Amino acid sequence: MRTFIVLCLAFIAVPLAAATTHVNAKIAFDSNRDGNDEIYVMNADGTGQTRLTNNAASDVGPAWSPDGTKIAFNRGFDIFVMNADGSSQIRLTSSAAMNIAPAWSPDGTKIAFHSSRDGNFEIYVMNADGSNPTRLTSNAAGDFAPAWSPDGQRIVFRSNRDGNNEIYVMAKDGTGQTRVTVNPADDQEPKFSGDGTKIIFTRALPTRQINVINIDGTNTVQLTSAGNNFFPTLSPDGKEDRVRQRPRRQSRDLQHELRRQFRSPADEQFHRR
Ligand SMILES: [Ca+2]
Ligand SMILES: [Ca+2]
Ligand SMILES: [Ca+2]
Fold first, then answer.
1. How many CA atoms lie within 13 A of 47 on its CB side?
2. Mean pLDDT calculated for residue range 235-249
3. What pLDDT is attached to residue 105?
4. Is this prediction's pTM over 0.90?
């Protein structure tokens, strides 16, 4: 469980930090400490740990809204949103398929995610109230893990449409889908740099290392070389890489499949070694 908490902390690092200018700094995470996966918040120093959800389903993957007033999360395979105090929990998706990995647009009006509702995984965007879900990709391969550019005009994601996981960018309306990486290695976890000119991602070499690349695909630079490194995100000023190392997974739990959706099957195989 601790493994996934670390993952979640890394996952929310940017919006969490961005929220600090608006509200008191909080850390959101999920934990099974009370019997099944629930969303919790705590102060940055670990005090005030408070459970926000109380539901038999698995609640995981909290994502702060940019202004820090709301938290999007997965309950089972649907995306929900709630106020930062846990009140007003609202279901945003209601398809029989998986709806995973909510990512807030910088202005807080949209949420991108990936879903299998149309037969294979595609990137979608919906209004923050769940209305008007719109498919942005249409490809027989898997399209996963959307993240917004700082100006909200573009979305970066990963896809295996060209035979292995590569990083792609597109306009927020899905047009102009462009491949950024061209490498037989497994490329994942893309995020825009603070100025929007670069993409930070991880590449399995086979150990997973953090790389940065220009959005036009030029000038790949490997930033790490030791261990395995996951979920790089930039601090709000765009100057500091936050690199977190995730310990080897010790056990698989009931919601393994849900969690797996935040990563690729190939990556899971990698972690099971
Ligand atoms: Ca729960
Ligand atoms: Ca697809
Ligand atoms: Ca690749």
1. 3
2. 50
3. 97
4. no
Counting the structural domains of the chain, the total is 1
Measured from the alpha carbon of residue 118, the closest ligand is 2
Whether the CB-CB separation of 110 and 149 falls below 8 Å is answered with no
Beta bridge partners of 198: 214
CATH number of the domain residue 116 falls in: 2.120.10.30
Query: What is the residue range of 250's domain?
Result: 2-272
Q: What are phi and psi of 3, to 5 degrees?
A: -55, -45
Residue 137 Cα to ligand 2 middle (Å): 6
Instruction: Copy the structure tokens of residue 200.
Output: 């930070």
Ligand 1 centroid from CA 98, angstroms: 17
101 three-state secondary structure: strand
Q: Which residues surround ligand 2, an ion (CB under 5 A)?
A: 120, 122, 139, 143
Closest among 54, 41, 100, 92 to 76, alpha carbons compared: 100
Mean pLDDT value of segment 57-81: 95
